[in-house]
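Supplementary Methods S3. Complex input for the protoporphyrin IX containing FE-bound model.
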Amino acid sequence: MEPLSRRNILKAGTIGALGAAVPARTWTWSPQGSVAGQGVGADPRWVWDPEADALVADLIERGDVPQVNALLRTWKKNGQALPDGLPADLRDFMEYARRLPSWADQEQLATAVRFNEKRGLYLGVLYGLASGMMSTVIPKEALAVYYSQGGADMKDRISKTAKLGYDIGSVNAYQPDGEMIVTAVKTRLVHAAVRHLLPQSPHWTPVAEEDIPISQADIMVTWHSLPTTVMRKLTDWKVPIPADESQAFLHSWQVGAHLLGVKDEYIPNSWAQANSQAEQVLDPVLRATPEGVKLADILLHLGAAIDAGILTKPILGAFTRFMLGDEIAGWLRIPREPVWDPLLRTAWGPFVAVREGLLPFPLAPKAYWLFDEFLRKFALLYLSQARPISIEIPVTNRPE
Ligand code: HEM
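Predicted complex, serialized as structure tokens:
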């Protein structure tokens, strides 16, 4: 059967029957559980970013992007004025897009900083490996990343993505001297460019199940691979997290989703809602693709290129298996590791308990040292990737 796509549906003239035809994929999550508390309930698989998409498509067609990128390289801090010389339509949009939502709560954002500081070591490995590797088994994301310009240089792409993880967790994330608003607004522009460019790629049409990538639903799927997955893992690992810090971490990501252009009616208002949305939209879509397997392999090799000691492919692979499970590890063709797999299974729990002061003595001192070293090295690697780097609007797809 031909894969389901808007194109096929339109061709077949069955869009009205979509819900009935493919109940498993229908969006049923209620906007009452969102930060907006209500909504028109439009299925976000068919909602993109109308405000940004037409504008950025036009910038690309007008040939304005190189000049815009050059100007935006100087726009770094949330509180900084936009550079002079931007096209007026882009400037107007960015002034609008950079505003925090009315429901942004400064106190919670400050608490999120505390959480990020306390949990930075775990967050490095969770964003980098749990979220990063999960993104390779989110088929639509893997395809979009692989066939877009950035897919040809994964190291550079990872640096840019790590920048977002770094900026959202940094002390001044949403303050005037922080950078998260800038990073999110630039990313919103990049996503709009990808929506215009990818459908023009000769590789895209045969593999994609859709005409236009990066719908609002897709963004929420990826969002769940980030904070929802991180919180699920921290909870599995029994890391004690005060309720206000857990809520604040969620809040910082709710604001992040808004700034990426997600409509408030799709952003969950609590962890319970986030988990229920993730069960509907993230868990069932995970699957291997040839493109995702290639991306995962590149990711697993990157550590060793930087630190041949502890961040080797076998250890990163074992960690991935430990966090994402045997099924996903199998899809990604990650080999079993006779030493690391059992060690993680038996010693990670006690390690976390000792680290968190819940157990008095390291039960396995050698493993404890290794794990601690791994966390530190990985956090350093992750942070070093977020070196001063500029997120730029692409003008092409992956080179042939
Ligand atoms: C670009 C983050 C959702 C596909 C980027 C960039 C960031 C980012 C920081 C800029 C880095 C770069 O230029 O390479 C996020 C976050 C998301 C999200 C935080 C959700 C919360 C998605 C989804 C897709 C996607 C759902 C596809 C289905 C892409 C692609 C690029 C990109 C193709 C451009 C790569 C390039 O050509 O350079 N994203 N993204 N993203 N993103 Fe996303």
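Confidence is low (pLDDT under 50) at residues 1-24. The radius of gyration is 21 Å.
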